[in-house]
Amino acid sequence: MNHQLETTMKTTIRLGLALAALSTAPAFAHDKHGHGNFSAGEPGDPNKPARTIEVLMNEMDYTPAKIEVKRGEQIRFVLRNVGKEDHEFLLATPKENLAHAVEMKKHPHMEHDDPNGVRLAPNKTAEILWKFSKAGTFEFSCLIPDHRDYGMVGHVTVK
Protein backbone atom coordinates (compact mmCIF):
# COMPACT_ATOMS: atom_id res chain seq x y z
CA MET A 1 0.00 0.00 0.00
CA ASN A 2 1.46 3.39 -0.87
CA HIS A 3 2.10 5.97 1.84
CA GLN A 4 -0.49 8.50 0.62
CA LEU A 5 -3.28 5.89 0.54
CA GLU A 6 -2.31 4.60 3.97
CA THR A 7 -2.30 8.14 5.40
CA THR A 8 -5.72 8.86 3.84
CA MET A 9 -7.15 5.64 5.28
CA LYS A 10 -5.80 6.42 8.77
CA THR A 11 -7.24 9.94 8.60
CA THR A 12 -10.62 8.58 7.49
CA ILE A 13 -10.66 6.06 10.33
CA ARG A 14 -9.72 8.72 12.90
CA LEU A 15 -12.41 11.05 11.56
CA GLY A 16 -14.99 8.26 11.75
CA LEU A 17 -14.01 7.47 15.33
CA ALA A 18 -14.10 11.14 16.26
CA LEU A 19 -17.58 11.52 14.79
CA ALA A 20 -18.73 8.40 16.62
CA ALA A 21 -17.32 9.84 19.85
CA LEU A 22 -19.09 13.14 19.31
CA SER A 23 -22.40 11.47 18.64
CA THR A 24 -22.23 9.42 21.85
CA ALA A 25 -20.35 11.61 24.31
CA PRO A 26 -22.90 12.21 27.10
CA ALA A 27 -20.51 14.01 29.45
CA PHE A 28 -20.55 17.14 27.31
CA ALA A 29 -23.36 19.03 25.65
CA HIS A 30 -23.97 22.51 24.31
CA ASP A 31 -26.64 24.77 25.71
CA LYS A 32 -28.84 26.93 23.47
CA HIS A 33 -26.10 29.59 23.39
CA GLY A 34 -23.43 27.14 22.18
CA HIS A 35 -21.56 27.06 25.50
CA GLY A 36 -20.21 23.79 26.84
CA ASN A 37 -22.10 22.10 29.64
CA PHE A 38 -20.29 19.45 31.67
CA SER A 39 -21.84 17.45 34.50
CA ALA A 40 -18.84 17.76 36.85
CA GLY A 41 -18.19 21.50 36.46
CA GLU A 42 -16.32 23.32 33.73
CA PRO A 43 -12.88 23.63 32.16
CA GLY A 44 -10.55 25.71 34.32
CA ASP A 45 -9.10 29.14 33.69
CA PRO A 46 -5.29 29.00 33.27
CA ASN A 47 -5.06 32.62 34.54
CA LYS A 48 -6.48 31.68 37.96
CA PRO A 49 -4.79 29.77 40.79
CA ALA A 50 -5.30 26.03 41.07
CA ARG A 51 -4.45 23.32 43.54
CA THR A 52 -2.38 20.58 41.88
CA ILE A 53 -3.30 16.95 42.42
CA GLU A 54 -1.12 14.27 40.85
CA VAL A 55 -3.00 11.13 39.82
CA LEU A 56 -1.06 7.98 38.92
CA MET A 57 -2.71 5.55 36.49
CA ASN A 58 -1.65 1.93 36.77
CA GLU A 59 -3.11 -1.50 36.02
CA MET A 60 -6.04 -1.28 37.13
CA ASP A 61 -6.24 1.61 39.55
CA TYR A 62 -5.69 5.28 40.25
CA THR A 63 -3.66 6.75 43.09
CA PRO A 64 -5.33 8.56 44.77
CA ALA A 65 -8.72 7.01 44.05
CA LYS A 66 -10.63 9.41 46.34
CA ILE A 67 -10.32 13.18 46.14
CA GLU A 68 -12.20 15.89 48.04
CA VAL A 69 -12.54 19.44 46.75
CA LYS A 70 -14.55 22.52 47.66
CA ARG A 71 -17.25 23.79 45.36
CA GLY A 72 -15.75 26.53 43.18
CA GLU A 73 -12.21 25.17 43.62
CA GLN A 74 -9.99 24.86 40.58
CA ILE A 75 -7.81 21.74 40.32
CA ARG A 76 -4.87 21.07 38.02
CA PHE A 77 -4.84 17.30 37.60
CA VAL A 78 -1.38 16.08 36.64
CA LEU A 79 -2.05 12.65 35.17
CA ARG A 80 0.81 10.17 34.89
CA ASN A 81 0.43 6.78 33.25
CA VAL A 82 2.88 4.63 35.22
CA GLY A 83 1.37 1.42 33.86
CA LYS A 84 2.29 -0.79 30.92
CA GLU A 85 -0.97 -0.19 28.97
CA ASP A 86 -2.85 2.85 27.65
CA HIS A 87 -5.19 4.33 30.28
CA GLU A 88 -7.77 7.09 30.44
CA PHE A 89 -9.03 9.65 32.88
CA LEU A 90 -12.59 10.73 32.07
CA LEU A 91 -14.35 12.95 34.63
CA ALA A 92 -18.16 12.75 34.59
CA THR A 93 -21.06 11.20 36.51
CA PRO A 94 -21.06 7.43 37.01
CA LYS A 95 -24.16 7.18 34.77
CA GLU A 96 -22.45 9.09 31.95
CA ASN A 97 -19.24 7.06 32.21
CA LEU A 98 -21.19 3.77 32.20
CA ALA A 99 -23.08 4.84 29.06
CA HIS A 100 -19.87 5.97 27.39
CA ALA A 101 -18.15 2.69 28.36
CA VAL A 102 -20.74 0.84 26.26
CA GLU A 103 -19.74 2.94 23.24
CA MET A 104 -16.06 2.32 23.97
CA LYS A 105 -16.68 -1.43 23.69
CA LYS A 106 -17.98 -0.80 20.16
CA HIS A 107 -15.06 1.55 19.34
CA PRO A 108 -12.15 0.42 21.58
CA HIS A 109 -9.58 2.65 19.89
CA MET A 110 -11.59 5.84 20.43
CA GLU A 111 -9.27 8.32 22.10
CA HIS A 112 -10.24 11.12 24.45
CA ASP A 113 -8.59 14.49 24.42
CA ASP A 114 -11.37 16.58 25.88
CA PRO A 115 -11.43 19.24 28.61
CA ASN A 116 -12.67 16.56 31.04
CA GLY A 117 -10.70 13.57 29.78
CA VAL A 118 -7.58 12.24 28.15
CA ARG A 119 -6.07 8.93 27.02
CA LEU A 120 -2.39 8.36 27.79
CA ALA A 121 0.15 5.88 26.53
CA PRO A 122 2.53 4.29 29.09
CA ASN A 123 5.07 6.69 30.62
CA LYS A 124 3.18 9.76 29.36
CA THR A 125 1.88 12.72 31.35
CA ALA A 126 -0.97 15.16 30.70
CA GLU A 127 -2.80 17.88 32.61
CA ILE A 128 -6.46 18.71 32.98
CA LEU A 129 -7.45 22.03 34.52
CA TRP A 130 -10.91 21.77 36.03
CA LYS A 131 -13.19 24.04 38.07
CA PHE A 132 -15.66 22.16 40.23
CA SER A 133 -18.64 24.51 40.06
CA LYS A 134 -21.19 21.86 41.00
CA ALA A 135 -21.54 20.01 44.30
CA GLY A 136 -21.86 16.23 44.37
CA THR A 137 -19.88 13.07 43.82
CA PHE A 138 -18.35 12.54 40.41
CA GLU A 139 -16.08 9.86 39.09
CA PHE A 140 -13.05 9.53 36.91
CA SER A 141 -12.63 6.24 35.16
CA CYS A 142 -10.80 4.47 32.39
CA LEU A 143 -13.26 3.56 29.65
CA ILE A 144 -10.89 1.39 27.64
CA PRO A 145 -12.85 -1.90 27.43
CA ASP A 146 -12.70 -3.90 30.68
CA HIS A 147 -10.48 -1.42 32.58
CA ARG A 148 -13.41 0.16 34.45
CA ASP A 149 -14.85 -3.30 35.14
CA TYR A 150 -11.53 -4.35 36.72
CA GLY A 151 -11.67 -1.43 39.15
CA MET A 152 -10.12 1.51 37.34
CA VAL A 153 -12.49 4.05 38.92
CA GLY A 154 -11.91 6.97 41.25
CA HIS A 155 -14.21 9.52 42.88
CA VAL A 156 -14.22 13.26 43.46
CA THR A 157 -16.47 14.58 46.20
CA VAL A 158 -17.31 18.27 45.84
CA LYS A 159 -18.58 19.91 49.04
What does the model show?
- The chain is of the alpha+beta class.
- The chain has a single domain (3-158), classed as Immunoglobulin-like (Sandwich).
- The chain is 22% helix and 39% strand.
- The strands form 3 sheets. The chain has a 6-stranded mixed β-sheet with strand order 6-13-12-8-10-9, with helices on one face. Strands 3-11-7-4-5 form a 5-stranded mixed β-sheet, with no helix packed on it.
Per-chain topology:
Layout: H1 3-24, E1 28-30, E2 36-38, E3 42-43, E4 51-58, E5 61-63, E6 66-69, E7 74-81, E8 87-92, H2 94-106, E9 113-114, E10 117-120, E11 125-131, E12 136-141, E13 153-158
Parallel strand pairs: 4-7, 6-13
Antiparallel strand pairs: 1-2, 3-11, 4-5, 7-11, 8-10, 8-12, 9-10, 12-13
Briefly summarize what is shown:
The protein is of the alpha+beta class and 159 residues long. Helix content is 22%, strand content 39%. It has one domain (3-158): Cupredoxins -  blue copper proteins (Immunoglobulin-like).
Q: Specify Rg, calculated over alpha carbons.
A: 16 Å
> Order of strands side by side in the largest beta sheet?
6-13-12-8-10-9
| Overall geometric form | globular
CATH topology grouping: Immunoglobulin-like
CA-to-CA gap between the ends? 56 Å
Write out key terms for the chains shown.
alpha+beta, 2 helices, five-stranded mixed β-sheet, 159 residues, six-stranded mixed β-sheet, globular, Immunoglobulin-like, 39% strand
